[in-house]
Amino acid sequence: MKKRFAVALLLFLFPQPVFSGTKEEVIRLQSDVLQLQNLVRVLQKTFDENHGSNQSLLEQLNDQVAATNRLLQEMVTALRSQQGETAAMASSLRDEMQNITIKLDDTNNRVAALHRKLEESQTRRQTLRLPPTIEGTDPKPDQVYYLAYNDYLVGNYELAITGFRDFLSLYSESEYADNAAFYLAVCHQVQGRYEQAIQVFDEVINMYPKSDMAPSAYYKKASAQMELQKNDEAIQTLSRLISLYPDSQESELAKRELSTLGVGRN
């Protein structure tokens, strides 16, 4: 290939016969041939280098294509695996939701049953509060009192307040009147209505000073006053409790409270 290329180049550059000139022309021709040979070698070297560079580039491209194909295959495999896991997860979630729905329905049924029982219990209590149906008879004071007291014990404070008020309006002279007034005040206190509680405790103190509930009324009143940050008034109430009922258990409690408040007694 090199020889054909060189001959073609000579014929193109020297269309006349080679041996038709003088000695100087022959020397010049030899020099030109030598230059052409050098040029052929340079061209061949350049061709070989370019061919090697192209071959290297082609190999790199083939490697890149192969790597891309491997990555694509891995992505397809991962996607299929993820789809399988997603399907399994969706199935598990559906089962879990079904179980939750069943449990929720069961809970709703239980709540409905408890609600019915509560309504029945309230109906029975309202029935017990009604006067007897026999003409000429009235409910006994102790029955009315204990209905309200039972409401207080189970935490139905609003019902207890209504019951104690009704009792006091009907049976203010009953032996349970002081207890009813005391627990009426306590119901207000446990619900945070401290001012109302103090007013009713004062009624117990003023109307039933000899009652065994009076010391407790003083002590509870002082507690309500402290809840309202009226410590000076609470100190006066506790001091009066100790003076009036020195032998009571509430008196000992009052002394401890005074000590906590920083008040010493001789």
Low-pLDDT runs of 5+ residues are 16-20, 130-136
CATH T-level topology of the largest domain: Serine Threonine Protein Phosphatase 5, Tetratricopeptide repeat
Structural class: mainly alpha
Distance between the termini: 133 Å
Secondary structure topology:
Elements: H1 2-13, H2 23-129, H3 141-153, H4 157-170, H5 177-190, H6 194-207, H7 214-227, H8 231-244, H9 249-260
Helix pairs in contact: 1-2, 3-4, 4-5, 5-6, 5-7, 6-7, 7-8, 7-9, 8-9
Report on the structure:
With 266 residues, the chain is an all-alpha fold. The protein has 2 domains: 2-77; 140-260, Serine Threonine Protein Phosphatase 5, Tetratricopeptide repeat, CATH 1.25.40. The chain has 9 helices and no strands. The chain has helices at 2-13, 23-129, 141-153, 157-170, 177-190, 194-207, 214-227, 231-244, 249-260. The longest helix has 107 residues, at 23-129.
